[in-house]
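Need the bound structure for 2-deoxy-2-amino glucitol-6-phosphate, inputs here:
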Amino acid sequence: MCGIVGYVGPRDATPIILNGLKRLEYRGYDSAGVAVINGDQIEVRRDAGKLSQLIDHVSKSPLKGAPGIGHTRWATHGAPSARNAHPHVGNSGKIVVVHNGIVENFLELKEELTSEGMTFNSETDTETIVQLAEHIKAGGSSLEDAARKTFNQIEGANVVVLMSTDEPDKIVTARIGNAGGVVIGLGDNENFIASDIPAILEHTRKVIFLESRQMAIVTRDSVRVETLDGREVKPEIHTIAWDAVSAEKGEYRHFMQKEIHEQVRALTDTLAGRVDFQEGRIRLPELNLTPQIAKRIKRIYITACGTAAYAGMVGKYLIEKIARVPVEVVIASEFRYSDPIIDKNTVVLAISQSGETADTLAAMEEGRRKGAIIWSIVNAIGSQAMRVADGYISMQTGPEVGVASTKAFTAPLADQYMLAILLADLRGTLDEETRKSLVADLRLVPDLAGRVLDTDAEIEKVAQVLKDIQHCLYLGRGINMPIAYEGALKLKEISYIHAEGYPAGEMKHGPIALIDEQMPVLCIAPKDPWHEKMISQIQQAKARGGIVIAIATEGDELIKDMVDHILWVPQAPWMLSPIITVLPLQLLAYHIAAIRGLDVDQPRNLAKSVTVE
Ligand code: AGP
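Answer from helper R.:
Posting the output first, comments after.
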């Protein structure tokens, strides 16, 4: 989750690093720091708290120099404090490190080094890295040799960035396992290192992504990539299409608000180049799906975390309905320890916005270990979940910065709809008329989404009424049941209100005891095959004095007369309705949190990408 920025080149590194860290604040942090090499000195400033405190510190006590490295920390070992903040300098003052991940064997390394007379100044696992590197370098190694030996001794998933006053023309970095990415930005007589693209996008769009167990030696005019056992590799250079502005807020108050309203564009982009409306066909070339593979697939596991898992729950309905292939959705943190029944005809489909979620990557590895076909639906270009898969679908929504996922929820719904059609088409189980009709329905989606987003002002009014609630139940059925879970998650993670999603049919088996005038109930009741069932659900809730808010299809006067508040959505083909019914819930959660004055984009305790277990 930590943010990392590095710079090597002729310019002063400090402002480049601080601006880059600002663009990574969403990754979660409780302290921050920056280090530069100035002559034969390593200068460091670091502070607990928000990045603004470090920026204030630096303005009062400037530091200039290059190369430089900076870090925003989300504590795993050692409380959030200046003492534990990165960067950490070795005892000799010659090497400095920033790090993301967990050194799982840091205690034994620390004991070994302490027994050899090394002293430690923090409780962090990170400090072990730099003390070990210094200890090895003191034996006469170059920085890169000392770094390589260090990288091969630390265990666990880690990203490490080191630099030294002895060799002030370079930065050495490594990616070991799934602790977040390493992006190397290629400039003109200068190069950049970051944990995520937005940090360096204003300087360059040409980037290299390190694979797991790779290291890079970066100078101002060269980047050499090697495996940890010293074999040089030729890295692929990617060009990032987004511009720096699209990673900024524009005229919106929060990234989340911007990203909710970007969904017309995001849905258009995720369809772009993949839907042949003329022929009524779907093309997903990066999935590498052939008729032979399609025909032998017997079962699909969809595995993900949080919002991505709820997207997978909708995908189950779509793939089973359209492609008639059995689908099981398993939360990634459970999947990896559940000894799943897998053979070569099983697909493990991971859904991940960041493509770096540790539990999801581990679930993919479990699938790989058991011989499954591995697919992923990912937003972050070049992320691990994209690179380790046999085939992938890129969400193509552009950067999602708000911690609460919105456009990276609706895009995979469309992606799984397309996947289901392609799979059925290649298996020969979809007649041409049905296929063309299903494909034609996709054309409606961006416009239907836009019509819901245009009701933002009405939704804000309902948010004003609900802003002081302490609890809320979200009920849905069928393909909209996962939208109850997702709507509840949106509310709880940004407004800190206790909210629970439930299959509506389950209410009579206990939870209905909760309903009274203090327990508002939000019913997702569009005109889909479960509409009638939801009507009786609403009646049951009203009969117990509950306040009922309904998501209902425009013109549904029956529901309008039954409930306290209504959030209208346009009629949509039922298999695409979750893309539409989730939008009012995103906006409702957003407005309640904004009205409550909360940190919508960086909710407490949360980080955008959970790269630790
Ligand atoms: C969703 O709003 C949350 N931020 C969280 O549940 C998130 O969906 C989950 O951590 C998975 O992240 P990923 O899509 O990057 O793997």
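Comments: The first strand starts at residue 3 and ends at 8. Residues 305-308, 352-354, 357, 360, 403-405, 493, 609-610 surround 2-deoxy-2-amino glucitol-6-phosphate (CB under 6 Å).
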